[in-house]
Amino acid sequence: MLLNPQNVMTLAPVFVTLMRVIKGLYPQFSAEFQMVVDDRLCSLYQTECPVLAVDLNLAYFLQAFAGNRSKQKEEIAIQIYDSTRNHLLRRLIILIMSRWKSYQWLTDVKMNDYGAMSIFEKRAFIIASYALGDEGRHWREFSKDTWFPPEVMVRDWFAARRQQGGDIVV
Q1: pLDDT of the chain along its 170 residues, tens only?
Q2: Are 106 and 77 in contact (CB under 8 A)?
Q3: Phi/psi at 19 (nearest 5 deg)?
Q4: Which pTM was predicted?
Q5: SS3 letters for the chain?
Q6: Which residues contact 17 (CB under 8 A, 6 or more apart)?
C-alpha cells in the first residue's frame, strides 16, 4: 500500500526513509511478498514517478531495489546506468549487477566502459570483478599496474572480505 504511486507522492518528504525501511525489511519478507515489493518498485520506475527524478531518491530506490534479481529489474538497472552520468548511481548499479551475478553485463562494462569510469565506478568495478571468477582474476592481474594506491586498497580489502565469506553489500 505504501508503494502505490499516489501514496509515494504523498510520502515524498520521507521517501528516503521509506526506501531504507524496505531495504532493511526485504530479507525478512516471504518470497511472495518480495515479488509484490519488486513489482511495485518496478512500477514506480516505469510510470516515471516524479520522486525518482531526484538522484538522491533514485540512489535509495536502487538500494531497496537490489534485493532479488529479475529480468525486469535488470533491464531497469541497465536503463538507468545507460541514461545517467551520475557516478553514485552508476557505482550502485555496478555493485547491484555484481550481486546479481550479471556476468555478461559486467563483461561488457569491463570491455567498453572501464577506461572512462570515474574513480568511484572503477573501485566498485574492482569489487564487482570478483563476481567474474577467473575472468575477473585475470583482469585484476592485468589492470593492477594502472591502479593508484586507493584502488589497490579496495582490491585487498575486498579480497580479505571474500576470504572471510563476505559478499557485496549495496
Answers
A1: 677 767 888 888 999 999 999 999 999 999 999 999 999 999 999 999 999 999 999 999 999 999 999 999 999 999 999 999 999 999 999 999 999 999 999 999 999 999 999 999 999 999 999 999 999 999 999 999 999 999 999 999 999 999 888 888 77
A2: no
A3: -65, -40
A4: 0.93
A5: CCCCHHHHHHCHHHHHHHHHHHHHHHHHCCHHHHHHHHHHHHHHHHCCCHHHHCHHHHHHHHHHHCCCCCHHHHHHHHHHHHHCCCHHHHHHHHHHHHHCCCHHHHHHHHHHCHHHCCHHHHHHHHHHHHHHCHHHHHHHHHHHHHCCHHHHHHHHHHHHHHHCCCCCCC
A6: none
